[in-house]
Amino acid sequence: MKISNFLKLFIAILISEMAGIIGSFFTASSVSNWYLTLPKPFLSPPSWVFGPVWILLYFLMGVAAFLIWQKGLEKKEVKIALIFFAIQLFFNTLWSIIFFGLHNPFLAFIEIIILWISILATIIYFYKISRVTLHLLLPYILWVTFAGYLNFSIWQLSKNIPQNIACTQEARLCPNGSAVGRVGPNCEFETCPIDNQSGAQDETNFGHD
Questions:
Q1: pTM
Q2: pLDDT of residue 47
Q3: Among 113, 85, 86, which Cα is nearest to 98's?
Q4: In angstroms, what is the C-alpha Rg of the chain?
Q5: What's the CATH class of domain 5-158?
Q6: Residue 73, Cα to own-chain centre: how many angstroms?
Q7: What's the number of CA atoms in the CB half-sphere (13 Å) around residue 166?
Q8: Alpha-carbon separation of residue 8 from 71, 92, 101, 129, 130 (angstroms)
Q9: Which region, left, alpha or beta, applies to residue 192 given φ > 0 means left and ψ of -120 to 50 means alpha?
Q10: In angstroms, rounded to a whole number, what is the distance separating the alpha carbons of residues 119 and 92?
């Protein structure tokens, strides 16, 4: 059955936007908490900017994919171009999972390099079939380049922040019958109250000597 151009356009845009919707499941929860705690570079935009920008970029991606699709899916060059498009769309979604889902800026930076290369390959193959697609995908690769800068900067800045250690729920019984747990960056036991008193007594005695 022959698909109309309008339906092709709708499907192409829908598939592109779906990549963003899948990524948003991992992004939404992290942007409102984890991402806000991260140190950010000077050029980092406010969090609310990302949503509208990506919606627009996915729309432009979908239009570009439609322009290639309508050239004829039976053509080899069209199939290859759309395969590269699907690959970059996969890495696009994967980045959100790694950065926002796994909270791993380092691995996300490695992945965004692969994403950038796959976008460039897509642009090259698309351009050979339709030059108009260059104008549609240029904002995309520029934004991902900027996102790569943000990703790298956040990774570097985060390296200087000590990571919180999940201490075990052990308790130590103090001589006065109370108990103390593990605290501090190295999960050391909190000082017993009697130890403080003894220390104060020892210091007092030392002063009288």
A1: 0.75
A2: 85
A3: 113
A4: 27
A5: mainly alpha
A6: 33
A7: 0
A8: 11, 22, 32, 17, 16
A9: beta
A10: 9
User: What CA–CA distance (Å, rounded) separates 97 from 2?
Assistant: 36
Q: Which two tokens stand for residue 128?
A: 């050979």
Domain ranges of the chain: 5-158, 171-208
Length of the chain: 209
- Sheet holding 171-173: strands in order across? 171-173, 179-183, 188-189
Longest dimension (CA), the chain: 102
CA dist 185 and 170 (Å) reads 15
Among positive and negative, which fits the CA dihedral 14, 131, 76, 83?
Answer: negative
pLDDT digits (tens, 9 = 90+) for 35-79: 888 899 989 999 889 999 999 999 999 999 999 999 999 999 999
Q: Given the DSSP bridges, would you call strands 188-189 and 171-173 parallel, antiparallel or unpaired?
A: unpaired
